[in-house]
Recover the amino acids of this structure.
């Protein structure tokens, strides 16, 4: 996702670099990374916008254990796959 045009409409960049405008949320599928300790962003729920790392996947339950933050008391939460997506942005974890 490159930009949000409205709360449910966005502009996306395809793997080959094309921009596609006016996509609705219902047309999108979240991507949960497969690598260990991959970074994800929470996209639904009370922790929306926070970045963390996948500690464990639970595919049979459709969720992952995600560690949010790296401070003294990081939160570890079970989050549904639909609530997280692969995060490729820069900067430190929130």
């Amino acid at each position: 996702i490159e930009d949000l045009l409205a709360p449910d409409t966005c502009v996306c960049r395809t793997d080959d670099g094309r921009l596609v405008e006016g996509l609705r949320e219902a047309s999108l599928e979240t991507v949960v990374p497969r690598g260990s300790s991959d970074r994800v962003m929470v996209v639904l729920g009370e922790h929306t916008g926070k970045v963390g790392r996948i500690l464990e996947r639970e595919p049979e339950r459709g969720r992952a254990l995600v560690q949010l933050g790296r401070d003294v008391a990081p939160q570890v939460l079970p989050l549904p796959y639909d609530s997280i997506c692969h995060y490729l942005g820069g900067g430190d974890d929130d």
The first strand starts at residue 3 and ends at 6. The two ends are 20 Å apart (CA to CA).
